[in-house]
Amino acid sequence: MKRKRIFLDLFSEIKSSNYNSSKLMFSIVNLALFFIGLLMAIIDLFTSQYVSLFVGLTFSILSFINYILSRCQNFKQYIVNLLFTIETIAIVLFFIIYGMSNGFSILWILLIPLFSCFVFGQKNGSLYSFMVLFLLILLFWTPLGNILLQYEYTNEFKLRFPILYISIYALSIFTGFVLQKTNRRLSILEEKYYHLYRHDELTSLYNRYGFNERLNKYFEELSNQSVSMLIVDLDDFKNVNDIFGHSHGDVVLQEVAKIIKRNISSQCIYCRWGGEEFTIFIACQDDPMEIASKISKDIVNMSFNKSQNVINLTVSIGICTASNISNVSAEEMFIQADKCLYESKNNGKNIITKTTI
User: Do residues 127 and 114 make contact, with C-beta atoms less than 8 angstroms apart?
Assistant: First the structure.
């Protein structure tokens, strides 16, 4: 059950939109190395390569330990990274010096530049890849390195392999740079579209989706507190569009949004619910009737004229106050505030109606 939980935690993190990408990649790479090392050990068992089997099995176990440690919340990631670096450098040296599997194992080294930047990040990954390059040059291109080699590589291989590694290293750096730039742009676009998803483009207030998102958090976090819901609806707004045109109607809505912002505190949330209707949630000790009166008065004092035509606006407002947020739901408060709004409309408009639940 515990082993199953280890893998489920990884899959749930992959699905999550909020994760540490380098840590996640480190976990995935070590898990992949665990299975690869295990597979190679099985192949070495059948081919009687017992030294290679021991090395592959040891590295497989160490990779799995790295994976477990990376999943531990209280374990420092830089310590795991250091252990991983020491282990991989050791096996790289072993592969180069002893040329296991008739020199085939050294080919795994070519994967290092491709994955190191994803595992350690661009800066540390490049440094790690350079360390491996230094070892290749030292062992293949210097007299001291040639003395250390226990496998007889051809001169052509010793000349070409570091050059091939350098080519892949350069390509990896370029790819990492492009990917970094792309991710940054995607992050900016994601933030932009997330903002547009939650906000009304015309007034810059929350739209109903953003408002409900914030509202739900208030209902989750607050308890035993008095709160109020206000619904503000412009009276006869159709006349504004008919007399001034829709462009001037948009200006009116923007001015109303500014009035609402000006008259409420930072603890309140507000949105353009749709059309000429605005919703306000008061999560502080401010008097909702006083706020509603200020908003109504400021809107009445606005005047717009065009071609000798002047129009003065009024608003109808419905208020629902809950003495204890723990005993009500957001939906219930909205329904009651909406009923009060309709009562204001039916009683002649330009009226504030309040109920308490």
Answer: no
